[in-house]
Structure of Transcobalamin-like C-terminal domain-containing protein:
Amino acid sequence: MMSMIMASFLSAALLLLVSGILTEKEYGSKPINLTIVNSIANAPNETYSADIVFRGILLGAMRRLQQTNADFKFTYRDDLNYGPFLESVNGVAGDNAEHTYWELLVQTGKNGSVIRPDVGIGCYIPEQNDHIILNFTKW
Protein backbone atom coordinates (compact mmCIF):
# COMPACT_ATOMS: atom_id res chain seq x y z
CA MET A 1 0.00 0.00 0.00
CA MET A 2 2.77 2.45 0.96
CA SER A 3 4.71 1.74 -2.25
CA MET A 4 1.56 2.40 -4.27
CA ILE A 5 1.09 5.77 -2.55
CA MET A 6 4.75 6.68 -3.14
CA ALA A 7 4.49 5.69 -6.82
CA SER A 8 1.39 7.86 -7.22
CA PHE A 9 3.09 10.77 -5.48
CA LEU A 10 6.23 10.47 -7.63
CA SER A 11 4.13 10.25 -10.80
CA ALA A 12 2.21 13.39 -9.85
CA ALA A 13 5.44 15.24 -9.00
CA LEU A 14 7.01 14.24 -12.32
CA LEU A 15 3.90 15.32 -14.20
CA LEU A 16 3.95 18.73 -12.51
CA LEU A 17 7.66 19.16 -13.24
CA VAL A 18 7.32 18.20 -16.90
CA SER A 19 4.20 20.32 -17.41
CA GLY A 20 5.96 23.31 -15.84
CA ILE A 21 8.88 22.91 -18.21
CA LEU A 22 6.59 22.50 -21.20
CA THR A 23 4.47 25.49 -20.20
CA GLU A 24 7.49 27.79 -19.99
CA LYS A 25 8.87 26.53 -23.31
CA GLU A 26 5.49 26.59 -25.00
CA TYR A 27 4.44 30.05 -23.85
CA GLY A 28 7.83 31.58 -23.05
CA SER A 29 8.01 34.88 -21.26
CA LYS A 30 6.23 38.13 -21.96
CA PRO A 31 7.38 41.72 -21.50
CA ILE A 32 6.02 44.13 -18.92
CA ASN A 33 7.11 47.62 -17.93
CA LEU A 34 7.46 48.70 -14.33
CA THR A 35 7.56 52.39 -13.41
CA ILE A 36 8.50 53.79 -10.01
CA VAL A 37 6.59 57.00 -9.20
CA ASN A 38 7.23 59.10 -6.10
CA SER A 39 4.12 61.27 -5.84
CA ILE A 40 5.35 62.82 -2.58
CA ALA A 41 8.85 63.99 -3.53
CA ASN A 42 8.06 64.65 -7.20
CA ALA A 43 11.22 62.71 -8.08
CA PRO A 44 11.75 61.70 -11.70
CA ASN A 45 10.00 58.47 -12.64
CA GLU A 46 12.15 55.40 -13.16
CA THR A 47 11.02 52.81 -15.72
CA TYR A 48 12.29 49.26 -16.05
CA SER A 49 11.49 46.43 -18.45
CA ALA A 50 11.03 42.93 -17.16
CA ASP A 51 9.93 39.56 -18.44
CA ILE A 52 7.35 37.43 -16.76
CA VAL A 53 6.64 33.78 -17.46
CA PHE A 54 3.19 32.60 -18.54
CA ARG A 55 0.76 33.01 -15.62
CA GLY A 56 3.64 34.21 -13.41
CA ILE A 57 3.08 36.58 -10.51
CA LEU A 58 4.36 40.14 -10.32
CA LEU A 59 6.58 39.32 -7.33
CA GLY A 60 8.49 36.80 -9.46
CA ALA A 61 9.11 39.39 -12.20
CA MET A 62 10.25 41.91 -9.57
CA ARG A 63 12.67 39.38 -8.05
CA ARG A 64 14.06 38.56 -11.49
CA LEU A 65 14.45 42.28 -12.25
CA GLN A 66 16.26 42.85 -8.95
CA GLN A 67 18.67 40.01 -9.75
CA THR A 68 19.50 41.36 -13.20
CA ASN A 69 19.43 45.14 -12.65
CA ALA A 70 21.52 46.71 -9.88
CA ASP A 71 19.47 49.93 -10.09
CA PHE A 72 16.25 48.23 -8.98
CA LYS A 73 15.87 47.18 -5.34
CA PHE A 74 12.83 46.41 -3.24
CA THR A 75 11.92 44.86 0.08
CA TYR A 76 8.73 43.27 1.27
CA ARG A 77 7.42 41.42 4.27
CA ASP A 78 5.03 38.52 4.47
CA ASP A 79 1.78 39.34 6.21
CA LEU A 80 0.09 36.24 7.62
CA ASN A 81 -3.33 37.37 6.42
CA TYR A 82 -2.62 39.23 3.21
CA GLY A 83 0.64 37.84 1.81
CA PRO A 84 3.60 39.86 0.54
CA PHE A 85 3.45 43.56 1.53
CA LEU A 86 5.74 45.94 -0.40
CA GLU A 87 7.84 47.92 2.10
CA SER A 88 10.44 49.82 0.06
CA VAL A 89 11.51 50.48 -3.51
CA ASN A 90 14.95 51.82 -4.43
CA GLY A 91 15.63 52.82 -0.83
CA VAL A 92 12.34 54.66 -0.24
CA ALA A 93 10.23 53.02 2.46
CA GLY A 94 6.67 53.54 3.53
CA ASP A 95 6.15 54.88 7.05
CA ASN A 96 3.06 54.48 9.23
CA ALA A 97 3.82 57.68 11.16
CA GLU A 98 4.04 59.64 7.90
CA HIS A 99 1.07 57.76 6.39
CA THR A 100 3.10 56.76 3.34
CA TYR A 101 3.02 53.50 1.41
CA TRP A 102 3.67 51.92 -1.98
CA GLU A 103 0.50 51.66 -4.05
CA LEU A 104 0.21 49.08 -6.85
CA LEU A 105 -1.42 50.42 -10.01
CA VAL A 106 -1.63 48.84 -13.45
CA GLN A 107 -2.09 50.50 -16.81
CA THR A 108 -3.54 47.68 -18.83
CA GLY A 109 -2.29 46.83 -22.28
CA LYS A 110 -5.87 46.17 -23.39
CA ASN A 111 -7.32 49.68 -23.28
CA GLY A 112 -4.76 51.81 -21.44
CA SER A 113 -6.91 52.45 -18.38
CA VAL A 114 -5.22 52.54 -14.96
CA ILE A 115 -6.61 50.15 -12.38
CA ARG A 116 -5.90 49.40 -8.74
CA PRO A 117 -5.84 45.58 -8.54
CA ASP A 118 -7.67 44.00 -5.63
CA VAL A 119 -4.58 41.84 -4.95
CA GLY A 120 -0.96 42.67 -4.18
CA ILE A 121 2.43 41.85 -5.71
CA GLY A 122 2.25 38.23 -4.56
CA CYS A 123 -1.01 37.46 -6.36
CA TYR A 124 -1.23 39.86 -9.30
CA ILE A 125 -0.67 38.09 -12.64
CA PRO A 126 0.36 40.68 -15.23
CA GLU A 127 -0.79 40.40 -18.82
CA GLN A 128 1.55 41.02 -21.73
CA ASN A 129 2.32 44.72 -22.17
CA ASP A 130 0.85 45.69 -18.81
CA HIS A 131 2.51 48.76 -17.36
CA ILE A 132 3.02 48.21 -13.64
CA ILE A 133 3.15 51.42 -11.58
CA LEU A 134 4.57 51.39 -8.06
CA ASN A 135 3.39 54.71 -6.69
CA PHE A 136 4.78 56.11 -3.43
CA THR A 137 1.93 58.07 -1.90
CA LYS A 138 0.01 58.96 1.28
CA TRP A 139 -3.17 57.47 2.68
